[in-house]
Amino acid sequence: MNARFCGLTFFLTLLFLSTSLVAKNSSGGFLDFNIYPYLSDADNDTSVTINAGARLANRFSYFGFINMGNQAGSSELSDTNTFYSEQNVRWQIQPDSPFDLTLQMNFRTGDDNDRHRLGVRWRLNDSIFIKDFFKRNRFQYAVNLHLIQFDNEPGNVWQIEHSFRKTWGTSDRTIYLSGFIDHTFNQTLPSEFPDNPIVAEAQFGIELMNSFFLVTEYRRNEYRIEQSNNWAIGAEYVITW
To answer: Organism's domain of life (predicted)?
Structure first.
């Protein structure tokens, strides 16, 4: 058992323990598991994703995920040995405010490449002047401005993060479209990379039975010169409380 696998196992154990603690002390939340048995030809892409979110006391909330991928050139769903994770802690500044102060912590495979961010998040769907429109259309949209970044890179790197979710369906069956766009600015990259690169995903899910979804996902990663676009088809299971 190599050190990388041991580290990933420890990280997953820590994730599940922290998620269990969050669920016990929250007023509602979710945990979902995504597995992608079919991927297009992009090497080293995500094949398993675990997401979790919860509403906590004193206007705090939590959202986090871990993406696990295969070694470059390996087949889908072979032993995963790469990972990327984001852990977000948010605090609503006033009881009815659509604005949150945010802390985001990024962890990933490799040495000296973790980064952490401080920012402000605007939940447009909770803004009083357009709240009814978003509720009527079962649509959620938020923008997170990460103003301060702590990492091992030079310069003042900052980021805008968009996230969205649109839901259709009935109480018996849900259909949704969700995703994000991460847009990074002022990062020093080799000349072959685009200026201000983006990482984006859009996932479409259809509930086949209670809490079990068929999903398809489009991904764009401009930190890859080749194979920056990718498609995935898989399954998702959702637990809510």
So the answer is: Bacteria
